[in-house]
Recover the amino acids of this structure.
C-alpha cells in the first residue's frame, strides 16, 4: 500500500515541473531568436554556435521536463483509481411482482 504522503509529493512535483517547463520553454524561445539573429548577422561565428548550443541544451531540458511530467500524470492517474461521481445502482431487496 502506498504511503499517505505520496499523493501530495506527486502534486508538488507536478507543480514544480510545470513551472520549470514554462521556464525552459521561455529560455528555448529566447535562444531560438538569439540563434536566428546571430545567424543572420554573423553566420558561422562563435556567437552563433554558442547560441545554438544553448538552444540545444534548453530544448533538451524542456523535452525532459515534459516527459517527466507526462509520466507523473499517468502514474497519478493509474494510482487514483476510478472516480465515483454518481450514486451506485442498487438492486431491490425483494423482487416485485405485479399481481393481477
Amino acid at each position: 500500500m502506498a504511503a499517505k504522503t505520496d499523493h501530495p509529493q506527486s502534486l508538488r512535483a507536478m507543480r514544480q515541473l510545470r513551472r520549470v517547463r514554462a521556464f525552459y520553454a521561455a529560455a528555448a524561445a529566447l535562444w531560438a531568436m538569439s540563434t536566428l539573429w546571430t545567424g543572420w548577422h554573423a553566420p558561422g561565428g562563435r556567437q552563433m554556435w554558442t547560441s545554438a548550443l544553448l538552444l540545444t541544451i534548453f530544448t533538451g531540458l524542456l523535452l525532459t521536463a515534459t516527459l517527466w511530467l507526462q509520466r507523473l500524470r499517468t502514474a497519478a492517474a493509474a494510482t487514483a483509481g476510478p472516480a465515483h461521481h454518481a450514486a451506485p445502482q442498487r438492486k431491490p431487496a425483494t423482487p416485485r411482482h405485479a399481481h393481477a
